[in-house]
Amino acid sequence: MATLLNIGQPAGRVEGPAKVTGRTKYTADVILPGMLWGKVLRSPFPHARIASLDVSEARKLPGVHAVLTSADVPELLMGKFIFDTPVLARERVRFVGDKVAAVAAESPDIAEAALKLIEVQYEELPAVFDPLEAMTPGAPLIHEDPTRYSHMPPQPFHGEVRIAPPIPNVSAQAIIKHGDLEAGFAKAARVFEHAFYVPAIHQAYIEPHACATWIEPNGRIHIWLTNKMPYVARNQIAIALDLPQERIRVDAASIGGDFGAKGSLMDSVLCYYLAKNANRPVKMVMTYTEELMAANPRHSAVITQKTGVDREGRITAHQVKIVYDCGGYSGYSPSPMLHGAVHGSGAYRVPAILIEAYRVYTNTVPRGYMRAPGAPQMLFAVESHMDMIAHELGMEALEFRRRNVLSEGDTGALGEHWRAILGPQTLEAAAAAAHWDAPKAPNVGRGVALYERGTGNIGASAMILSVDAQGRIALLTGAPDTGTGALTMLQQVVAEEFQLPREAVTIVQSDTDNAPFELGHAASRFTYIGGQAALVAAREMKKALAEVAAQKLGCEPAQIELREGRFTGPGGSLDLKSLMAYAAERGLAPIQRTGNYVHKSGEMDNTCFCAQIAEVEVDRETGEVKLRKLVTAHDTGTVLNPLTLHGQIEGGVVQGIGQALTEHLVIRDGNVTTLHMGDYKLPTARDIPELTTVIVPSQVGPGPHNSKAIGEHSLSSVPAAIANAVFDAVGVRITELPITAAKVYEGLHKQTGK
Predict the structure, then answer these.
(1) Residue 153 pLDDT > 80
(2) Is residue 190 part of a domain?
(3) Is the pLDDT at 426 greater than 60, yes or no?
(4) How far is CA 163 from CA 139, 146, 330, in A?
(5) 1 pLDDT more than 50
(6) Which of 131, 211, 350, 417 could be 268's S-S partner, Cβ–Cβ 3.0 to 4.6 Å?
(7) Percentage with pLDDT > 90 across the chain
(8) CATH at 472
(9) Is position 167 within any domain?
């Protein structure tokens, strides 16, 4: 087997030098001639009718060029899959932070002053903040007739999806069944039921949402926005504005952190109407208070589970009900139901399962995408539930998982057929690295949790590869890098095909006018789909260059071999520069090839496993939990870039630690009370324990060189591993995140009856 020059080697970021020298251009950096600043007036009430709205004084303020209310924009509804979100609130507001009016002015200060001059009279309406209460008959209806909302066709799903079913305030419902549930519970020696709650958390990217709009005199629209899916955004904006996509150009901008959140339109359509009304370019940048109040955080969830096990401790049936709170609107919730619902079976062999998932409107901040949408909520419940079952059976937690984890030859709980199932190997690798059986000091505990997630396979990718007359290679893509190292991966893949150092390949990210269609970053898809598109482009280019080399060397193209960057045949060899010089003489340069790749249905025959073990120490006097160690083991396929692999894993682990121990977007009576990052409590370097990463390699994976996904795998089971470790340490079971000292302290005192 040939030695790989680029694959498996640590590679620094393509965009790294530009970022560290400050040359990277983000949307908030866009400056346009005559540009105005846009600001939004937001509702102070969770549910209210707009009785009157007077913007006359704001329009008189010097420096103000546009003031808009819902009366000044078309009566349109936006969304990604369900179109229920207005540009500006029309007649009533549905959460604290709902957009009521907007201003474009010559400076941010003038815009803020204009907002203060707008007079709004509200008539408060009954509100509902709890998703379970919202589903009951007689609850205040947040959307009186959600069946009228148009929506995209439901994507392929393991079960039945209903949009706006006849249940109060439910925007979507999914029912997933496999096997004979009744027979499964009949076989059970014991049945266990537990309930869990996971609150909303914010993605906490450094770059806030921003957008800028310039309308050419001919009506052509240029939009810059913090969106990782430029072509999808263009399509959504075109639908919202009822314009052909060709009228809209989404210009290239870097993304300053995503974690799933940078896929919504946010203020971009409103920005367009401000620019159109003012006849000037407009830029809007959210403050972090607005981000926490009115962006799209992770869904909170209420999960109940019922599981039957036989006398040997093997699962016979499993039933899950999960209620996701989507807030005041569901337009930018994942479609049509959060994918995390399918993880109701965990990583286990489950003969019969029923999963009921609901997405429910409440008068709270609308929710959206966050890394592994829906899965961390479900995994906290599933993996805590499994530990509780093991404890009640008197069985060791690791042994219970050994008996039930999916193994080679098993069928997945939803009927999936995979090969090279590495669940047991990943579990044992984590246990060995964590020294699971080693003695523990008093008040020290270890907890284990598992996760199974496949590589994302949605959508198409296209890349254009070109070689110019000087032999320089460039790959053109429409995908921005969200901080994951995706552009570096493309560079490695192309360079490897040409057996050249990766620096020989230039990666160019461009706008929707010039780059080919690219779905963008979502669902751990890009290394697979985008990487394969780059691979196709490189291989097509090699064929084209072999034909040119054959002309020069006087042989057949089939006789040309690529060796160490040189095209070699019976008559000699040519490096790329010499080859392209000959091509230029013949009028053949530059040469360009397009690589297209679309996942074929039924093609995915493998999945990925993650096993995590946390070690904690609990202070019995205060309830404080100290995370001492965390081991994370991953079934990865071929590692393309060790630097980005470990960066993705460790970054995900830290996000999981935050969700487990500190993060909580506190919402009281519809008001987000954590409106400052100092209150929100992200984990810092002092909160991060000793981290150990274990790679379980394999030669089975759908991506280039048999690679698998890693972006969403390392965060989802961390909270359960920590909760299980706390129970192992002091016998306190936490079923509601985050795991705070106060909750542990209360649990300890319940043990003593004090």
Answers:
(1) no
(2) no
(3) yes
(4) 19, 9, 11
(5) no
(6) 211
(7) 90
(8) 3.30.365.10
(9) no
Write out the two tokens for 186. Answer: 């009949």
Q: Count Cα neighbours of 699 within 13 Å in the Cβ-side half-sphere.
A: 0
pLDDT tens-digit map of 123-146: 999 999 999 999 999 999 999 999
Residue 3 has pLDDT above 80, yes or no: no
Q: Are 519 and 459 in contact (CB under 8 A)?
A: yes
Query: How is residue 540 written in tokens?
Result: 């097509």
Do 223 and 351 belong together in one domain? no
Burial 362-376 (b: 16+ CB within 10 A, else e): bbbbbbbbbbbbbbb
pLDDT digit string, tens, across residues 298-317: 999 999 999 999 999 999 99
Q: What is the pLDDT of residue 2?
A: 56
Give the contacts of 166 (CB within 8 A, at least 6 positions apart). none
Contacts of 56 (CB under 8 A, 6+ apart): none
Q: Which two tokens stand for residue 341?
A: 């619902």
If we measure between CA atoms, which residue out of 98, 93, 25, 38 comes closest to residue 66? 38
Task: Give the pTM.
Answer: 0.96
Instruction: Based on the fold, state whether residues 385 and 464 are members of the same structural domain.
Output: no
Count of CB atoms situated within 10 Å of the CB of 605: 13
Q: What is the pLDDT of residue 601?
A: 63
Domain that holds residue 745: 300-455+604-752
Domain assignment present for residue 532? The answer is yes
108, 68: one domain: yes
**Pair 573, 716 in one domain:** no
For residues 501 and 612, membership in a common domain is answered with no
Total domains in the chain come to 3
